[in-house]
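Quick note —
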Amino acid sequence: MSLATNFKDDILAASNPTRKYQMIYNNDGTVSLPDVTAYSQTGSAFGAKEVNEERAAINKINSDRIVTLDEIDLVTEPGFFVDAMAVKQLNRNFKESVYADGYMVVDIGALPNNSTKSVPANIPSAASEYWISDAWCKSRTTGQVSPMPYIDASTWSNAIGITISASKNIVVTTKADWSAYSGKAVIAYKLSFI
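Predicted structure written out below.
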């Protein structure tokens, strides 16, 4: 339903500064007051029909609005309104799970040979939260790239583990000789003052 958007006000003609009404005395003792004002523009009618149309449109918006994040995935066409609480939840989810204030790439260097290696990550001191967003290693001889952490499906003895310690160091642990590989890690972080 398309609501009218072309309503006009009455504009009085220059010949009368105020509205004019004619008094007509009826036979039953009543008086009728027809408007005899000269108008340069006659205004639009606005009554129960227009109010009912507007209320129906407002009620449709309220009944069709998206109130949960699950409903957002069901939308296949434009024109739906999203409830503020659903937007608030979407923003909270975005900030908590995706949003980072910064990213940094840390060069781990050669991976250890069946041991553990600790590399300073130099995470900003203002970072309240930090995590490994991505990590990989590349063979300096064959060019093969492997993700970290790495779990060999055929044996646990060929695994690579990667963590960030409480002292903000990247700790890489290998269960085999991975020293022919160089590693890098992408650290994401949130700043506590934001």
